[in-house]
Amino acid sequence: MDWFQVTFLALVQGLTEFLPVSSSAHLILPAQIFGWADQGLAFDVAVHVGTLLAVMLYFHKDIRKMILAWLASVFKRQHSQDSFMAWSVILATIPAGLAGILLNDFIEGNLRSSLVIAITTLLFGALLWWADVKGRRNRGEDDFTMKDAIWIGLAQALALIPGTSRSGITITAALMLGLTRQAAARFSFLLSIPLIMAAGLLKGAELYQNGTEAQISHTLIGGLIAFGAALACIHLFLRLLDRIGMLPFVIYRLFLGVILLAFFV
């Protein structure tokens, strides 16, 4: 890779990991437009680690409280809102984990196409708009229930389909359940941590087995760029969310889906 490709792909990974716009839709475009080869496992691991560190740094106080509260709930039977949220994240992660184990080979072999990505980008973009408009948005994090966690977890499993957007579908489900935009986004971001960590570990294990010829400078800089982009993205998204709503992301997804249909299908 040259430095433009390193910078561009790292920015794409850092931004689209948390915005409801689908990272897979964005990663197909530069490859098609510029004729880029696959960036390689080492780079994938680096940018995943960068985005993981960003979300963990941003929510480090929440994560610390949730871990301590979860340990207290397990060993001392002391339950609190923080321990409940920790259990909710664990519960909501299970459907995507099981779906990944059972369906990953099928999805890799049958659904990674421009047509699938274009359709899901459009379909789930429209669903995000509907949820944002029709959702009651009158329930905060204190009103969160295990039923909410299950439904959001089931929705997250759909993100295995390319073009869906993990953050997009989980925020959509949370809005449909009546959660506020802030509560929906915060839970979506916290829920991303186990999956990004699992993806990074799997790619890391594959990298260890196969080795790499990647340049160390490319992977390090790519990881740092992804980290900075993700950190800025989370901060600005949460700060502006109540003001702008989901409509700008919906419009962008519809525009992107039409481009994919017109030029790559």
Describe this structure in words.
This protein is mainly α and 265 residues long. It has one domain. The protein has helices at 3-16, 23-34, 41-58, 60-75, 81-110, 114-134, 146-157, 166-176, 181-210, 216-244, 247-264. The longest helix has 30 residues, at 81-110. The protein is globular and about 55 Å long. The mean pLDDT is 90.
Give the overall average pLDDT: 90
Determine Rg (CA atoms, Å). Answer: 18 Å
- Stretches where pLDDT is under 50 for at least 5 consecutive residues are none
Percent strand: under 5%
Q: What is the total domain count?
A: 1
Label this structure with key terms:
265 residues, 0% strand
Structural topology:
Layout: H1 3-16, H2 23-34, H3 41-58, H4 60-75, H5 81-110, H6 114-134, H7 146-157, H8 166-176, H9 181-210, H10 216-244, H11 247-264
Q: Short summary of the structure?
A:
Helix 5 runs parallel beside helix 7 (146-157) and helix 6 (114-134) runs antiparallel to helix 11. The chain has eleven helices and no strands.
